[in-house]
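In response to the reviewer comment on reproducibility (Comment 2.3), we provide here a single inverse folding case reported in full, input and output, so that an independent group could reproduce the run without further information from us. The structure tokens appear first.
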């Protein structure tokens, strides 16, 4: 046998520190490949050490890489404006012309890192802040993937066919209604149910200012890129399983006029593959091929396209299969982890996800008799399991007054007129509860008010889990996103215009820290001192938990100041 007994043991210490400057595409590509290698080495540690440690390291590494280190693409028009201002921050994705092999290697690395990230985060217990950071990290990976996918290479035009189809440069390209711009295609970065992250991120919870900065940049990219209004690829909505659920059922029902099908048709025509089918897929570990028709002339057009898009090889445009997988993984990461496990029993049995379990397995299922609808299937974890996702967006805020029995647009008078208020298990008096809820009616002003409220000899009330959740939600929910702040000409602001006029690029807490840090630090110091006075016992004291939560909140706030 070759090698000694120690060569099969993975190294336990992986160097994650890398301060390589990333100002060119070559540097970014090399850094992505090195990051993938580091993730592979961390994943190998799970065979000889606690798997949760390696998964936490992988998740933190990838989050740091895409929210801090790798530059988020800049929209072309914004990049031109910066260049006119002689800004040194030139977008490397717009000026580089890599070879086709270099571009493919970068896209493969991004898809592998997304797979690592999905497997690592699904193997760890996550709170609201972790899930929010996961969503932003995922969409940052999507932005980098989209920018690299559209890059033109230094090779022949045949190597850029996919990029030209994505940008709407094929012969039969249509135009956006009311515009002279080429239609093209965009990537679907919304959830399975079609919710845009820009519209639902206001109720997420962010404790890292770097993630909020990355959120601003990636939202700016997807809102201002040339193809922001173009039809989205792979924006398929999963169908819930019906009847006998133990049998494999199609996940998606795709119409022949679907955007992805039109895109696939245009791509196959450009590649002269329209009347062909891909090599048949191998099935199982023991080999063997899948069943089905072998003669493409005996198939309908939608079946041929479906077999190409569901295959595991695409000889002349392998990037399309990477795109398919990375869009699905992104949508999967937008799903709340608790609901995903609740609706999928096989997921609950897995404590440590391997890459093979998190990797999506695609399959062409069938077509209807008319040849107008294609039924496609995707599975993870268990090949026979039918994936179930939540029917709606389930990210709710504990500070939402609707949970406390009020209507959506309640104001201070509505709180004062309510006869019975929630007292949180008699933790607060009627007067204190009334005061707290009136603060919650003004979420854009609530941070200093709520901090001052709990600093007034009410630190002990934070032992109540509900009040702790409300306290942290008020502090770390960013609320409405706007690219720039707006001038307010009339007070009070109408409820319907709050998001437009009071929204911020980096969240309400960052806005307070930038313009009025004293209103945060003074009551926070009082809360910390009162907590220390309460903690007079050892680590078994009831107040030990309170001390840990206050210390964590204090650390998070100081990162913003």
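Designed residues, in position order:
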């Amino acid at each position: 046998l070759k090698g000694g007994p120690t060569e099969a043991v993975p190294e336990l210490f992986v160097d994650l520190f890398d301060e390589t400057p990333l100002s060119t595409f070559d540097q970014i590509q090399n850094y992505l490949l090195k990051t993938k290698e580091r993730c592979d080495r961390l994943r190998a540690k799970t065979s000889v050490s606690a798997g949760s440690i390696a998964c936490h390291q992988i998740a933190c590494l990838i989050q740091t890489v895409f929210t801090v280190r790798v530059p988020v693409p800049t929209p072309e028009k914004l990049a031109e404006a910066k260049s006119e201002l002689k800004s040194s921050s030139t977008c490397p994705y717009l000026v580089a012309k890599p070879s086709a092999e270099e571009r493919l290697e970068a896209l493969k690395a991004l898809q592998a890192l997304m797979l690592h990230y999905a497997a690592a985060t699904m193997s760890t217990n996550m709170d609201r802040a972790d899930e929010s950071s996961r969503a932003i990290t995922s969409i940052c990976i999507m932005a980098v993937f989209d920018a690299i996918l559209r890059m033109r290479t230094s090779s022949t035009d045949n190597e850029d066919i996919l990029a030209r189809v994505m940008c709407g440069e094929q012969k039969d390209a249509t135009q956006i209604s009311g515009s002279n711009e080429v239609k093209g295609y965009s990537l679907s970065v919304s959830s399975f149910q079609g919710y845009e992250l820009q519209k639902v991120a206001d109720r997420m919870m962010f404790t890292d200012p770097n993630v909020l900065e990355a959120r601003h940049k990636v939202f700016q990219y997807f809102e201002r890129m040339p193809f922001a209004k173009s039809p989205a690829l792979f924006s398929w909505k999963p169908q819930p399983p019906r009847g006998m659920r133990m049998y494999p059922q199609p996940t998606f029902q795709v119409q022949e006029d679907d955007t992805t099908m039109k895109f696939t048709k245009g791509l196959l025509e450009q590649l002269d593959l329209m009347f062909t089918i891909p090599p048949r897929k191998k099935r199982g570990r023991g080999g063997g091929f899948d069943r089905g028709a072998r003669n493409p002339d005996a198939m309908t057009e939608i079946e041929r396209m479906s077999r190409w898009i569901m295959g595991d090889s695409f000889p002349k445009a392998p990037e399309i299969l990477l795109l398919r997988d990375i869009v699905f993984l992104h949508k999967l990461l937008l799903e709340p982890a608790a609901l995903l496990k609740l609706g999928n029993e096989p997921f609950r049995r897995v404590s440590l996800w391997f890459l093979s379990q998190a990797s999506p397995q695609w399959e062409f299922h069938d077509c209807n008799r008319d040849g107008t609808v294609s039924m496609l299937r995707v599975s993870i974890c268990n090949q026979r399991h039918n994936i179930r996702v939540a029917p709606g967006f389930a990210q709710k805020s504990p500070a939402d007054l609707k949970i406390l029995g009020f209507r959506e647009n309640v104001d201070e008078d509505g709180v004062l007129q309510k006869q019975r208020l929630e007292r949180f298990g008699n933790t607060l008096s009627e007067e204190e509860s009334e005061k707290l809820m009136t603060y919650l009616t003004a979420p854009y002003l609530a941070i200093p008010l709520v901090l001052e409220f709990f600093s007034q000899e009410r630190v002990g009330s934070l032992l109540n889990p509900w009040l702790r959740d409300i306290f942290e939600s008020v502090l770390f929910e960013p609320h409405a996103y706007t690219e720039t702040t707006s001038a307010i000409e009339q007070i009070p602001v109408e409820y319907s215009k709050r998001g437009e006029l009071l929204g911020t690029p980096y969240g309400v807490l960052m806005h307070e820290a930038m313009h009025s840090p004293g209103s945060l630090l003074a009551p926070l110091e009082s809360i910390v001192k009162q907590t220390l006075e309460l903690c007079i016992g050892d680590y078994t004291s009831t107040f030990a938990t309170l001390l840990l939560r206050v210390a964590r909140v204090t650390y998070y706030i100081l990162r913003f100041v």
